[in-house]
């Protein structure tokens, strides 16, 4: 679990020992555009603000989805602005159970940064522990990290049917969106044929922390995920799917991200959609 997550106590020990740690505040939530304002009011001391919309994604389009992967050069420039150097440990956090911080975790791991963690429980856990908070902006000394793609697997829209046929395709959105009962942002309701409903919020306990590895393995085994077949995950736009991939990693299971996710798929009228509680 330590390869993916870091607890508040572990992070406090690192910081107290002077171990170099880049703190990334990824405050973002669908429907709340005020992440930077929340950051300026309070954040972990030394944390830099990471803008999910502009730094962890390329501009949206119907063809690519709402949060396409950023160009590598743009991500590298952003990471250097955050102060990331070669060999650094990066810790990302948010105030929504890690569901936005996981996007930074996945992207940096995809881009070759080896030691990236999600703060388990996020800002809420930090507050509960009585740990200090700061306000205002933090401007980091520029880093020198060199990024290289391919550190985490990703698939394209044309690969999705193959994964659903020979492996397991997981839909990390809320169940009502999977079933097609509601669709608040994308052009069509429903899910990709063959996908199984696996809301990423079910990877968290009531305290907003990840379930332990054994409970996560049990959860994914119930979804026929046991590490013997390919696994891919999508969501609305490739953000919360990264959280599902983090939970799978805690359970010891590798999975690919479909970055375009439903926002890309549903914009293509030639791609089918299922509106029921069943995969097909």
CATH superfamily of the largest domain: Rhodanese-like domain
Based on CA inertia axes, which overall geometry fits?
globular
- Kindly identify the CATH topology of the largest domain: Oxidized Rhodanese, domain 1
How many discrete domains?
A: 2
Features:
alpha/beta; Oxidized Rhodanese, domain 1
Secondary structure layout plus pairing:
Layout: E1 5-6, H1 8-16, E2 21-25, H2 35-41, E3 48-49, H3 52-55, H4 72-81, E4 89-93, H5 101-110, E5 116-119, H6 122-128, H7 160-166, E6 168-171, H8 175-178, E7 196-197, H9 213-222, E8 231-234, H10 240-250, E9 256-257, H11 261-265
Parallel strand pairs: 1-5, 2-3, 2-4, 4-5, 6-7, 6-8, 8-9
Helix pairs in contact: 5-10
Description:
With 280 residues, the chain is α/β, with parallel strands linked by helices. The strands form two sheets. A five-stranded parallel sheet has the order 1-5-4-2-3. Strands 7-6-8-9 form a four-stranded parallel sheet, with helices on both faces. The protein contains eleven helices and nine strands. The protein has two domains: 5-128, Rhodanese-like domain (Oxidized Rhodanese, domain 1, 3-Layer(aba) Sandwich); 157-265, 3-Layer(aba) Sandwich (Oxidized Rhodanese, domain 1). It has helices at 8-16, 35-41, 52-55, 72-81, 101-110, 122-128, 160-166, 175-178, 213-222, 240-250, 261-265, and strands at residues 5-6, 21-25, 48-49, 89-93, 116-119, 168-171, 196-197, 231-234, 256-257. The longest helix is centred in the last third of the chain and has 11 residues, at 240-250. The chain is globular, with a radius of gyration of 18 Å.
